[in-house]
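quick one, 117 residues, struct below
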Amino acid sequence: MCHKVHTLAKNEDGQLTYCSTCDIYHLYFNNIYLEFKQSEMECFKKFVSQIDVAYWESSCDRVLLKRRIPIQTMQQNLAIVFNRRELNSLKAILFKTSTEIDAPISLSEMDYVQYLN
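---
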């Protein structure tokens, strides 16, 4: 169980936290949740930094897809797909270039249906 969780980076799409008790990184990104050990995190960051966005966007040119940039998982029939904006947002979290950690979020950034009466 994680007891000493610290937020390392976050933006409107997700956040990266680290538990010093478990020595585990937790990546929450949209509807994806991933856990990494230190070595796994370094490999994932290296992999993400080397993705050829132009190649993937042009290779699926004939297909009308919103998301064209895949990240293959260990399960052969499962890949996570991103568009350019989402991939840049993921990189901002992974490389800690996202906005201030404790910055308040606006009402429009909350994933919540609001009714104004």
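The chain has one domain: 5-101.
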